[in-house]
Design brief:
Strand order of the largest sheet: 1-2-3
Helix content: 40-55%
Number of strands: 3
């Protein structure tokens, strides 16, 4: 009885280790969620208004979806596992006259005597439909997670501001939480809550810091708001 040939087929496709693709796509998902979370928070601050209705949420979600275009340059990373574990080792072996599959010296043979596969170098990695589909499968749920988390973060920050404003004597104002410290929330003497939209931001382009040592550094509007807030706190202090 002839012994069965247990060598892999020459047409068998090289694959990355199990779980490598999942780890690479998981890292992409974390990065995408963080970016889209920050994008949604920034959109909420730019739109302005204290609290949010369905119109505001829809507008901010649309802006966040548009911002996701900046993540599409990560398409090659969706195939990171294949590039790192398959193509790079195969290219290195091919340059050393070794089988691209198992690394055995092939001595110009068309078929490797060790693994039985073709000794032809593997085709170079090329951008195709697979990494695009993979990245799209990551970005769609990441967009939902980023928008939901961003809205929850903004509402939590606004609820904390309400508690702080109630405990303050007189008008109260402070910057929004990270990553939107450029925008401010305020409560006037009548208890009305405000958050300025981007076109309404008070910008004094001629402003300079009260600290002369900081003036040559190009301190901008955020520093101006911080110094004003510190001055207001000093005035309210007993």
């Amino acid at each position: 009885m002839q012994e069965a040939d247990l060598r892999p087929s020459s047409r068998e496709e090289l694959r990355a280790p199990a779980g490598a693709n999942a780890a690479a796509l998981g890292a992409l998902a974390v990065l995408a969620c963080a970016f889209l979370f920050a994008s949604y928070c920034i959109a909420r601050a730019l739109v302005g208004g204290f609290g949010s209705g369905l119109g505001t949420i829809a507008l901010c979600a649309s802006a966040t979806a548009a911002a996701s275009i900046f993540l599409w340059w990560l398409v090659p990373f969706a195939d990171f596992a294949e590039i790192f574990w398959v193509h790079l080792p195969a290219d290195r072996r091919a340059r050393a006259a070794q089988c691209p599959h198992c690394g055995y010296p092939h001595e110009s043979r068309a078929t490797c005597t060790e693994c039985g596969r073709s000794t032809e170098p593997l085709p170079a990695w090329a951008l195709g439909a697979r990494p695009v589909r993979r990245l799209a499968a990551v970005l769609v749920p990441a967009l939902v997670v980023g928008c939901v988390a961003g809205e929850a973060w903004c509402r939590l920050d606004e609820s904390r501001f309400v508690v702080e404003a109630r405990g303050a004597a007189g008008p109260y104002t402070r910057a929004r939480a990270f990553p939107t410290g450029f925008a401010r929330m305020s409560c006037d003497e009548d208890g009305a809550l405000h958050s300025e939209a981007w076109p309404d931001f008070d910008r004094d382009r001629s402003w300079q810091s009260g600290d002369e040592s900081r003036r040559p550094r190009g301190i901008g509007w955020k520093a101006e708001a911080d110094e004003r807030e510190a001055a207001e706190k000093a005035q309210r202090a007993p």
